[in-house]
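User: I'm new to structure prediction. If I give you an amino acid sequence, what do you actually give back? Let's try with this one:
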Amino acid sequence: MLIDALDLEFCSGLTTLTGETGAGKSILLDAFVLALGGRGDASLVRAGKEQGQVTAVFSLPNQHSAHLIARQLGFMSDQQIVLRRIQSSDGRTRAFVNDQPATAQALRAIGNSLVEIHCQHDDRALVDPAAHRALVDAFGGLLEQLSEVKDLYASWRSAMRTSVEEEARVEKAKLDADYLRHAYAELSSLNAQPGEEELLAQRRQFMQRAEKVTTDISDALAAFIADSSPAGEIAQTARRLERKLNSAPEILESPVRALASAVDALANAELALSQALNETAFEPAELERVEERLFALRAAGRKYNVSVEQLPHVTLKFADEIATLDASEARLMLLREASAQAQQAYFTAARKLSDSRQKACKRLNQLVDAELGPLRLDGARFMAQVSCDPQNSGPEGIDHIEFWVQTNPGARAGPLMKVASGGELARFMLALKAVLSDRGSAPTLVFDEIDTGVGGAVADAIGQRLWRLATRAQVLAVTHAPQVAARAGHHFHIRKGALAKSLNKGSSVVTRVAILDEDQRREEIARMLSGAAITDEARAAAAQLIKNSK
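Assistant: Good question. You get back a string of structure tokens that encode the predicted 3D arrangement of the chain. For your 550 residues, that looks like this:
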């Protein structure tokens, strides 16, 4: 790594980065890509250091999509977004969003909405077919239509799922119809009541106990009313003594009281025995009826695998299922009709969106083709291909859109990435960005040596379009073309230089970045025009180039 420490602030408009091959321009770009969530590489760490760090700070409106993405990912985000990546010499990386720990995936998700990087061999930006439909929608101002199609698709799929689920439920219910009706009839006839089992069990237990003690109670009561019962004699004796109480009260008072108590106790005992006998009296058939009912309830519970207490609920459940089955055909018809209507509404909107996309693609093709001539792609054609396939419908509609090109008249057209050479691809991308920059574009665009292998009028045309893009976005361009550098509002010069001599290590070489003033900028453009030896003629040509670019 040639960078020890570097702090760069990029302004709005067009900024160019120039320098000799090997000065470190690619390293700067690699560091930028790392901050945006790109693949880490231990080779990026300066030799002898444990780690390197790169931080990218973006000032954005609060409602920019990058803020929204950051918030959706759980990061606090307001006004600024700070992406930081630490690369260790052992290959490991750590990522941060607004000083909050993050994953590289989170950095990429946010970074993709902030920066687009284009180069001759780039396979991420405009050449990604997955992004072409979204670009056409943004270009054509079709986002409201797209949102409507997405909503209608969700409604259709929901209605269809409901219809399918109901159909499956009805079909299952039909298979179980005989069972349901039999079970409901059986349970309805049984008519189990809440708390009935407990009451029956208690009554059964009472009658079983009563059977065991009734004979003993009868025998005890019979002893009281039998002729041989001592209760009568005791009562007679008590009455005789009571009549003689006045003749000898001091002798008879105590015995009379005791005998009176005994008579009362015997009377109470007889009454208690009579009441007990009445309480234990039941019809012999009652126990049989109670047991029969109790056993029937418990058998039903076992049959339907529920407690007896739940039998009333099961009865109601079967009743509901039978009612549902009886009304199923009408309900299913309504659901199918709702699903069909939702489907029709979706496809109507999707076809309108498809027509709008066809028109947007025609306009896009015309505008891009108009950009190709000045870029020396004479005879080339750009084609945004729309394939409408209702069988492959989705939330985004029924269209597949892919950017195709024809590089020469009579040549076979094909996908952008497969047909165009490196230099052609870069110019096609520039033409596309010139048309699409204000629609669906990131706020920062980076072009890495897309002018390689071209010069003269083509380089000037590239510079014109980069300058045009810079009126609507922040544009950074790594370039070797003086025609491009001349149009920059800001010019960074990148070169290698010695850091300092350290003991036993010799001198260290680092990359330095200088912001050029007008004179320095003219000198650098002159170098780009003439090479190592800068002539007065080159300086004059550079001055004229700068003048003509304004």
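You can read the tokens as a compact description of the fold. Here is one thing that stands out. The chain has 17 helices and 13 strands.
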